[in-house]
């Protein structure tokens, strides 16, 4: 089997018309036949049924027969369907006499421009339909598409679809045109066309499991939470039926956080839910600085409070920004500069 | 715009958090169309973490935090915050003195709430129109240009702070200077208001170049 493997990184760059066709159709067909044959041989070797041998089984079999200690997953031996390995390429765009097939070939970006023309045609169609409805005095349809649940294709996905390189400007112009099309009231006619270019967003936040309350010896309900901010790591245990006392690393918050801003941050989740005097908290924190530790404990308390509170209030907490981990960390210093952003003093000579 | 110019640690799809408690307690019927769309969008998209200067308590005011950040030097937020609280305290004291000395008829007109005084003073200091340098035919002209809300607020705060830092006696402390300036601005007097009027006059004088604005 003489199979040529390329990594996905190289594939990404080579997508599109980057030169004449490297692999002919006949070659790829032969590769597919060889792949299917090889799949059956492999199934036989492993003692499994060749008809129901899926890609996962192939991966497991290869990992068993050719164990490799290489770190890079793409460098290990793999056996995948040729369509995934050889990137889709455009066929030769001109006939035997040298005349190109597509009328926009000489623009350089034939698929992009033909796509823009198509979309604009649909726009004109919708406007004509609108005019007809107005002429007949019928009401315009006002069913709005749910914008929240879908997103447009990214530039890379669009490039893959068109098999052509796009610039940022081209991409934004196309998206603006699509937006214009969707904003028209009668765009339901072209719904199918628009759906080709939009993707469903997975509905957020439904995967987080809220832990049930735990009960300690005296029957007091409590719950734990962990939080982090910059380099600080904190854990908080929030008890029910409390008086609003909070302890950090054994000390009272008044001693540990002399600054008002930090104490405000600690009380933020409780104040937001209106439960200031009702809970006790015992926290441990390490690492980071003054403000980072306060932020870490705030996140830990908010996570612990999720178990005490209804689902709607959890959603409100998330929308208030209490349950997201702050991803901002100190930016690294770069060589050739004095700091992360500050450059060395510029001297003319 | 679809393409990002600056980068941030958050994915561009993250939305800003809404901290106000009353916003979440409003029943569904009172919301307008836009707010309903916003709510739907928020239910699907991830949300950024609330920054440490933002809190849902009654005492946190976004304008005051912005002013504190502008007063801050070398990242010393503790000092800036304490100066701010001392300023508000000083304003309250001065107003209470005036209140107790005033006759019965005037007692109602004297404003004692330092937050109200701060907001009103800032509003009075905001310029309406600004000047921008536009180069045309080799020469640079000062063209009158309408300002955005953010820019107006920024200029008002900047003028107040520079006025206090530079044009006062060296030995007086910042809270005293600031409280004086804020009270004067509240009554539409004082050097900051003069500066605003000077800017307006310049804009009026250069009215002839207004058509240069692209």
TrEMBL record, chain A:
Signal peptide positions on this chain: none
Gene Ontology biological process: translation
Annotated SUPFAM superfamilies: Ribosomal protein S5 domain 2-like (SSF54211)
Localization per record: Mitochondrion
InterPro entries, sorted: Ribosomal_Su5_D2-typ_SF, Ribosomal_uS9, Ribosomal_uS9_bac/plastid, Ribosomal_uS9_CS, Ribsml_uS5_D2-typ_fold_subgr
Listed Gene3D superfamilies: 3.30.230.10
Chief place of localization: mitochondrion
Family: Belongs to the universal ribosomal protein uS9 family.
Name of protein: Small ribosomal subunit protein uS9m
Organism: Manacus vitellinus (golden-collared manakin)
UniProtKB/TrEMBL annotation, chain B:
Keyword Cytoplasm: no
Keywords in alphabetical order: Mitochondrion, Ribonucleoprotein, Ribosomal protein, Transit peptide
GO biological process, one term: translation
SUPFAM superfamilies: Ribosomal protein S7
Protein localization: Mitochondrion
Small ribosomal subunit protein uS7 domain span: 50-207
InterPro entries noted in UniProt: Ribosomal_uS7, Ribosomal_uS7_dom, Ribosomal_uS7_dom_sf
Gene Ontology CC entries for this record: mitochondrial inner membrane; mitochondrial small ribosomal subunit
Protein family according to the UniProt entry: Belongs to the universal ribosomal protein uS7 family.
Protein name, per record: Small ribosomal subunit protein uS7m
The species this protein was found in: Manacus vitellinus
């Amino acid at each position: 089997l003489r199979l040529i493997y390329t990594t996905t990184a190289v594939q990404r760059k080579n997508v599109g018309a980057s030169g004449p066709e490297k692999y002919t159709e006949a070659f790829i067909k032969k590769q597919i036949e060889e792949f299917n044959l090889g799949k059956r041989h492999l199934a036989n070797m492993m003692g499994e049924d060749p008809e129901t041998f899926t890609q996962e089984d192939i991966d497991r079999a290869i990992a068993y027969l050719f164990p490799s200690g290489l770190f890079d997953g793409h460098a290990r031996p793999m056996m995948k369907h040729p369509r995934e390995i050889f990137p889709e390429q455009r066929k030769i765009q001109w006939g035997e006499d040298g005349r190109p097939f597509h009328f926009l070939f000489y623009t350089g970006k034939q698929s992009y421009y033909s796509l823009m023309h198509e979309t604009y045609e649909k726009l004109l169609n919708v406007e004509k339909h609108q005019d007809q409805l107005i002429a007949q005095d019928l009401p315009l349809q006002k069913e709005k598409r749910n914008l929240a649940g879908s997103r447009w294709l990214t530039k890379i996905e669009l490039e893959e679809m068109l098999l052509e390189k796009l610039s940022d400007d081209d991409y934004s112009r196309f998206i603006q045109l699509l937006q214009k099309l969707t904003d028209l009231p009668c765009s339901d006619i072209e719904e199918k066309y628009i759906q080709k270019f939009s993707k469903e967003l997975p509905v957020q936040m439904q995967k987080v499991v809220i832990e049930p309350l735990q009960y300690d010896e005296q029957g007091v309900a409590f719950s734990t939470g962990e939080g982090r901010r910059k380099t600080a790591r904190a854990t908080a245990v929030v008890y029910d039926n409390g008086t609003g006392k909070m302890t950090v690393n054994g000390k009272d918050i008044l001693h540990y956080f002399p600054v008002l801003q930090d104490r405000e941050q600690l009380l933020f989740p409780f104040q937001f839910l209106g439960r200031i005097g009702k809970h006790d908290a015992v926290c441990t924190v390490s690492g980071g600085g003054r403000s980072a530790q306060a932020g870490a404990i705030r996140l830990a308390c908010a996570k612990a409070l999720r178990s005490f509170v209804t689902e709607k209030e959890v959603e409100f907490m998330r929308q208030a920004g209490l349950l997201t981990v702050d991803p901002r960390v100190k930016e690294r210093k770069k060589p050739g500069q004095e700091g992360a952003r500050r450059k060395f003093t510029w001297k003319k000579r | 715009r679809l393409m990002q110019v600056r980068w941030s640690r958050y994915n561009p799809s993250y939305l800003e958090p809404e901290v106000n408690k009353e916003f979440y307690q409003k029943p569904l019927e009172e919301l307008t169309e836009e707010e309903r769309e916003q709510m739907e969008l928020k239910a699907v998209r991830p949300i950024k973490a609330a920054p440490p200067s933002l809190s849902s308590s009654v005492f946190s005011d976004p304008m005051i935090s912005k002013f504190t950040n502008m007063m801050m030097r070398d990242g010393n937020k503790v000092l800036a915050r304490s100066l701010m609280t001392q300023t508000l305290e000083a304003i309250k004291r001065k107003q209470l003195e005036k209140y107790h000395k005033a006759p019965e008829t005037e007692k109602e007109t004297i404003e004692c709430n330092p937050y109200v005084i701060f907001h009103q003073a800032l509003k009075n200091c905001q310029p309406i129109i600004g000047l921008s340098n536009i180069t045309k035919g080799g020469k640079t002209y000062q063209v009158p240009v309408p300002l955005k809300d953010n820019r107006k607020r920024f200029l008002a705060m900047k003028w107040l702070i520079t006025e206090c830092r530079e044009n006062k006696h060296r030995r007086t402390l910042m809270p005293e200077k600031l409280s004086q300036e804020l009270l004067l601005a509240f009554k539409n007097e004082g050097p900051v208001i003069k500066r605003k009027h000077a800017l307006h006059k310049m804009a009026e004088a250069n009215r002839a170049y207004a058509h240069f604005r692209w």
